[in-house]
Design brief:
- This protein is of the alpha+beta class and 365 residues long.
- It has helices spanning 12-21, 29-49, 72-85, 151-154, 223-232, 250-260, 279-292, 323-328, 342-349, and strands at 59-63, 69-71, 91-96, 103-104, 114-122, 133-141, 163-169, 173-178, 183-189, 194-199, 210-212, 243-244, 262-266, 277-278, 296-298, 315-316, 318-321.
- The protein is 27% helix and 22% strand.
- It has an eight-stranded mixed β-sheet with strand order 4-3-5-6-7-8-9-10, with helices on both faces. A five-stranded mixed β-sheet has the order 12-11-13-17-15.
- The chain is globular and about 60 Å long.
- The structure holds 1,6-di-O-phosphono-alpha-D-fructofuranose.
- Residues 68, 122-126, 214, 248-250, 253, 276-277 line the site of 1,6-di-O-phosphono-alpha-D-fructofuranose (AFP).
């Protein structure tokens, strides 16, 4: 394996080619998806950079499938991704956080052997105030017979992802991805329009510094979640307090914790018994990256990557980041029923777990 340091000049293209060479049977299709994603990142970065100038700030009158008002840039970013991928011959289907149904490959184009799930512009309610946003993506191999992609191809547990990543539109634009061979970060050099390897083999620091959580929901958390947060904050006298940092834009919060060490939490609460974040477009891809960087992700019952999805827009509670901090969640077991329905759904939908798995016996994260 070629060993790169943060001081070698390596374009994302060269890096992807070098990784592909490690697999003699590789056809280059997955590499093609990653190049296309880097291209998408540059195109969306360009739109985000000029958002304030082009009179495209503010909400459209449309709402997405979650019932949220779509920002115009969400719509634009969604279109950029779909158009970059629907004719390339590498995908047989897609699913987007912004679209209700499976996105089929148009007639006349050859379907490929992968499916792509993506959140085109996560954190988009922050655009009006110039806060970092991101694109998140997840790739699976097709598992059904026939040439066209089906729902079953999209509803696979995160453990089966073959690639995942995100693009952060922050003070600089960065793409971080994994194909299961470590997590690697690339920074866009705007003067040459290339992503250059800047963060090879990212390892999330074991000594966490940050806690990212929205305290506004504290009154709606179950008692074990409140106790967990008191522990993170050092209020129960058991440990040193973590610093609290919350942007409210998942990619930005995750990226800071990935590099600096920390845990992002979006617990279930009585008003949102399944949390807010989407399993397929947000939790799974970031969980894959976290694990590849030596971290972990759980939903309060077990590993995120073991959850068998049942619907495209499924939500999940999420604890994500440094391993020790995520493992702490299992010491604060949630009551059997956080809210009507949640335990039955969780027990029944975890891949490989019997429907009756009691919470206290949930697999360790
Ligand atoms: P938007 O895309 O509506 O801005 O939501 C962003 C997000 O999905 C995720 O990026 C944040 O971590 C989370 O929601 C913030 O949610 P709260 O505002 O409830 O804390």
């Amino acid at each position: 394996m070629v060993k790169h340091t943060a001081t070698s000049v390596v374009t994302i293209e060269r890096f992807i080619i070098e990784q592909e060479r490690m697999f003699p049977d590789a056809t280059g299709e997955l590499s093609g998806i990653l190049y296309d994603m880097a291209l998408v990142g540059k195109m969306i970065a360009n739109k985000v950079r000029s958002a304030g100038l082009a009179d495209i700030l503010g909400a459209t009158s449309d709402t997405n499938v979650q019932g949220e008002v779509q920002q115009k840039l969400d719509v634009i970013a969604n279109e950029i991704v779909v158009k970059a991928f629907d004719h390339g011959g590498r995908l047989c289907a897609m699913a987007s956080e912004e679209e209700e149904d499976i996105i089929h490959i148009p007639e006349g184009f050859r379907p490929g052997k992968y499916v792509l799930l993506f959140d085109p512009l996560d954190g988009s309610s922050n655009i009006d105030v110039n806060v970092p946003v991101g694109t998140i993506f997840s790739v699976f191999r097709k598992i059904t017979r026939g040439s066209h992609g089906e729902m079953e191809d999209l509803l696979q547990p995160g453990r089966r992802q073959v690639a995942a990543g995100y693009i952060l539109y922050g003070s600089s634009t960065m793409m971080v991805y994994t194909t299961g061979q470590g997590a690697h970060g690339f920074t866009l050099d705007p003067s040459i329009g290339e992503f250059l390897l800047s963060h090879p083999n990212i390892r999330i620091p074991a000594n966490a510094r940050y806690l990212s959580v929205n305290d506004a929901y504290e009154q709606d958390w179950p008692e074990p979640t409140r106790a967990l947060m008191r522990r993170y904050r050092g209020l129960d006298g058991e440990r040193k307090a973590l610093n609290v940092r919350y942007v409210g834009s998942l990619v930005a919060d995750f990226h800071r914790n990935l590099l600096g060490g920390g845990v992002f939490c979006y617990p279930a609460n009585t008003k949102s018994p399944n949390g807010k974040l989407r399993l397929l477009y947000e939790a799974n891809p970031l969980a894959f990256i976290a694990e590849q960087a030596g971290g972990a992700a759980c939903d309060g019952y077990g590993s995120i990557l073991d959850v068998q999805p049942t619907e495209l827009h499924q939500r999940t509670p999420l604890y994500l980041g440094s391993k020790d901090e995520v493992e702490l969640v299992s010491q604060f077991p949630l009551p059997k029923f956080v809210a009507p329905g949640i335990q039955e759904r969780r027990g029944a939908s975890r891949a490989g777990a019997p429907a009756s798995t009691p919470v206290s016996a949930a697999p360790a994260v």
